[in-house]
Amino acid sequence: PEIVSNLNAPGRRASFVRLRAKLEISRQEDVAAVTAAMPRLVDLFATYLREVRPDELRGSAGSHRLREELIARAT
Questions:
Q1: 4: which strand partners?
Q2: Contact at 8 Å (CB) between 73 and 44?
Q3: How far apart are CA 41 and CA 51, in angstroms?
């Protein structure tokens, strides 16, 4: 599902991020387990996004860091 979360931007106007992620599952037998864990994954992603500052997402390095953090949480 799409996740919309406010970012950690104290003293500034509110900043939000919208995230839609895709999970690639290599084994068909893991689909049920991932589906069952989806609410927990969404919560982990949203909790992480609330702590991210807007300047941490800027540029290609920010995108790469975000991707790596979300992969680590999904794993």
A1: 18
A2: yes
A3: 16
Q: Is 35 left (phi over 0), alpha (psi -120 to 50) or beta?
A: alpha
H or E stretch covering 16: strand 16-19
Each residue of 31-54: pLDDT tens digit? 999 999 999 999 999 999 999 998
Q: In this structure, what DSSP letter does residue 9 have?
A: -
Rounded Cα distance between 17 and 57, Å, is 10
pTM score, whole prediction: 0.81
Tokens of 30: 């893991």
Mind listing the pLDDT tens digit for each residue in 6-32?
Answer: 998 877 688 899 999 888 899 999 999
Cβ partners under 8 Å of residue 70, min gap 6? 21, 45, 48
Amino acid 61 reads: A
